[in-house]
Amino acid sequence: MQVLLILLVIAAGMGLSVEAGLLGPLGSKVGDLWATFSIFGVGAALTFLLMLFFSPRNSASFFSQPSWTLLGGVLGPVYVIILTVVTPAIGIAMTMIGILAGQVFKSLVIDHYGLLGTARRKIDNKRIIALVFIIAALILVAQG
Predict the structure, then answer these.
(1) Contacts from 6-13 at CB under 8 Å and sequence distance 24+?
(2) 39: which residues sit within 8 A by CB, 6+ positions away?
(3) Residues with Cβ < 8 Å from 24, sequence gap 6 or more?
(4) Which residues contact 141 (CB under 8 A, 6 or more apart)?
(5) Nearest one of 127, 107, 128 to 118, comparing CA atoms
(6) Beta carbons of 77 and 35 less than 8 angstroms apart
(7) 45-92 confidence digits (pLDDT tens)
(8) Residue range 16-44: average pLDDT?
(9) Rounded to 5 degrees, what are φ and ψ at 90?
């Protein structure tokens, strides 16, 4: 089961690269904010349809959750705007490796301290080595 989940997140990562490739040209034609809006508008409509048919009806109220948990709603558009602006300038590979480096670094910190309600997973040498390899990839792609 874990292998299937890993393959699923790899596929999602591939989707982000495609999204970055689509956003750059769209942003140059209609504007960066309109391109971002299109991504979230289509995504919101699709999510709404999925909620109608597949969302459990007995789950906790969305409005009873702590307000800090809604920060993802702010971070998502910021991320997409950055993708839209940066990808045409530095390319998809550089953008994605930079994003990956930031994600892994921050994920290690969040895991290590058990932030945002997650379980603690201590930073060990293997995780640090993985981060070093990602930074090395970033440097190599930047020089290429």
Answers:
(1) 13/96
(2) 19, 23, 80
(3) 83, 84, 87, 88
(4) 93, 94, 97
(5) 107
(6) no
(7) 999 999 989 987 787 887 888 888 888 888 889 999 999 999 999 999
(8) 92
(9) -115, -5
Are 94 and 141 contacting, i.e. CB atoms less than 8 angstroms apart?
yes
φ/ψ of residue 68, rounded to 5? -65, -20
Give the percent of the chain with pLDDT over 70.
100
Sign (positive/negative) of CA torsion 9, 6, 136, 115?
positive
DSSP string, 16-60: HHHHHHHHHHHHHHH-HHHHHHHHHHHHHHHHHHHHHHHS-TTSP
Residue 98 makes CB contacts below 8 A (sequence gap 6+) with 90, 138
DSSP state of 55: S
Tokens of 53: 């048919």
**DSSP 8-state symbol, 59:** S
The answer to whether 80 and 36 have CB atoms below 8 angstroms apart is: yes
The total number of residues written for the chain in this structure: 144
What is the chain's Cα-based Rg? 18
Rounded CA gap, 144 and 139, in Å?
Answer: 9
Q: What is the pLDDT of residues 113-126, one digit of tens each?
A: 999 989 999 999 99
Amino acid at the residue 78: V
